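Help!! Second protein's tokens look totally different from the first
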Amino acid sequence: MKFYNAWYCPFGQRAWMTLVHKGIDFDYIEVDPYDETESWMAISRGAAMVPVVIQPNADGADTTIVESNRVIEYLEDLQPMTPIFASQPNQKAEQKYWMDHVGNNIVPYFYKFLKAVEPDQKQAYLREKMIAGMVTITEAMDHMGPFFDGAELSAVDIAFFPFAFRIETLLGEYRNFHLPTEGSSWQRYHQWYNAVLKHTSFKTTGTDNDGYVNRLIEHYQPYSLGS
């Protein structure tokens, strides 16, 4: 299996975490997704985005999957051991709902907040929308935890955490933003955050790499300047 990724990309990190967690063998290929060469456009099926997973099939053809949540789902089907989705259709549908929630109600506001240079009403609005999305998903977490669905890492954790880490790291650095710690919802959130932070799948794809946090901060500096 070939795995095309950009080390800094939270979407790519979703797929990377899944590959590591499931113990799937893969060849890691670092790419610049913004360099829209003819070969890269063909590899990414015209999307020019990571992650891209290419799996050779028995008939000699390749299966190419783009878009991070679709890659997560494909890898679950490919390697059902160490499951990250529930076995019951209704529970799996609920997990996919929360994965979409991250994409619709947290991710856009995180990026817009990071790029909102002026501390004005617009920046405050984006901050509050992001926080509201985070509170909503936190209140849906299993009561005991520590992960979203309970004792084991799930697809929801993988879909959310790369962005949660960047919210903590980048918004703390560039917007002097820190999440609350008081109240039952935020206590549950931080329990979840610390559990995934220590998980092998994240450490292997993030903080176990030399200078990861500083490199991430440096890479996202143009975003913080509105670029």
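Here's the second one for comparison:
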Amino acid sequence: MTYAVKEIFLTLQGEGMQAGKKAVFLRFAGCNLWSGREEDRATAICQFCDTDFVGTNGQNGGKFNDAKGLAGKVAEIWGEGRSERLVVITGGEPMLQLDTALIHALHAEGFRIAVESNGTIEAPSGIDWLCISPKAGSEVIQRQGHELKLVWPQTGSDWRDMESWDFQNFLIQPMDRANIKDNMKASVDFVLSNPKWRLSVQSHKWLGID
């Protein structure tokens, strides 16, 4: 399988339950809920995405012909040392490309694999940490994992139903739009009223890192 990768870079995980951890981010190109082009945003299922996942022209991006080669590139970017290796696979929608061959190859390089997905495609086995971020208007079929992260507010999100899904952690994250301060307040108020949920903030944006 050929993998289309937008970018690969070393950073800190900025959000969710693993915030603050050193990680290599592997961002796949492509998504099934938005083309990634601004002219299509108004008609997309997910209209608030803040990520560039179009093409393969990002840092260390490109087409990788096999899983071993891509896993080797991730290991190269991590650098020396095999302890506590973490790769965060995201997109776009990573489940369009993530397969068991790449999971095995990354494990062989000593990586713990975290994945961030919209949940509309079933996850392959072998993922060590699965974060699902549901998007209103889509059909979420992956209803179990380690972390459910709901961007807030989202009109049409049935968060009460989500509470019955099989996740270890339930997170609310303020939507990063022009009205971010209002969204922060709405998110804080939500968590104060619904203690099953925990607040997640995008600390990498506050820190000014990728």
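Reply: Different proteins will give different token patterns, so don't panic. The chain has a mean pLDDT of 96.
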